[in-house]
Amino acid sequence: MSTPKQFKRVLLKLSGEALMGDQGFGLDSDTVDRIAEEVKSVHENGVEVCLVIGAGNIFRGVSLAAANIERTTGDYMGMLATVLNALAMQSMLESKGVTTRVLSAIPMSAVCEPYIRRRAVRHMEKGRVVIFAAGTGNPFFTTDTAAALRAVEMNCDALLKGTQVDGVYSADPKKDSSAERYEHLSYQEVLTRNLKVMDTSAIALARENAVPILVFSIHNPGAFADVVAGKGTFTTISDNQD
Question: pTM to 2 decimals?
């Protein structure tokens, strides 16, 4: 399979855990700084960048204490936690001179802008990095689904998912040394093989709108820029083999 041309507009999906570093909870400033530097590098290369960040570093850490909280309320708590991560990333990016906007699906005008699609597109056209917070604004939908939705709405060339490993494997390579790494998968193969890349609604949404998903390791320095340029190690999920 030939490497793709450099993309012009991409959405980077990060889990909240990606911001923890070696900590067991919360934000590691050095890790946030490194990821912000990578986003800056891609942005300075002329690529329009938007992000969706999960909240597993904050919310899952208190989930046991919140065991008796109903699912809907718990989901809203998770959405609010994504805003904390988005504001942290915004602050780090702007400390590096990158103009950034946080747009929340749950209006909270004192700290960020409400999500309005045309406004978000305009921010990106003006060269600003946009961070989408609070998921889709609805319970029962993950930040994976929010990432796919925003990638479609922003007409992104690709959705890049930064994970703990350098692609999609048949099993967890940290637990199974015989796990097979895939270079390319179709959307249907991901669903049929029940590969835990993104939830099914996110995969289905990307498939319906022909948005390729590129899975790579966010822990490899420079990997984000490499993948955007069609280099480095990653797994492509799409129905196009070219």
Answer: 0.94
